[in-house]
């Protein structure tokens, strides 16, 4: 089971993003935390899905998450594919996206 502190951190991030005006459709945890292989040095890999990212470049998307980064003292890296970001609908219907082995939070 994913550690409760990881889930709490993700839920806190979701609340911070909501307070800054970003409407989050889904947050998906993946990587070592979701596989329960994390060490003390492991990061938390998440995928944030939001319609608010649609048709925005990397700089505009970074502005949407900036306030949450300041509150959490963390860094959110945009690793989206080309094409204006992934929305919930595009992710679910995209055939060339590898299926994530993760937890929907």
Automatic annotation (TrEMBL):
Pfam families referenced in this protein's UniProt entry, alphabetically: NTP_transf_2 (PF01909)
Domain of life of the organism encoding this protein: Archaea
Domain Polymerase nucleotidyl transferase: 15-63
Molecular function in Gene Ontology: nucleotidyltransferase activity
PANTHER family, A to Z: NUCLEOTIDYLTRANSFERASE, POLYMERASE BETA NUCLEOTIDYLTRANSFERASE DOMAIN-CONTAINING PROTEIN
Protein known as: Polymerase nucleotidyl transferase domain-containing protein
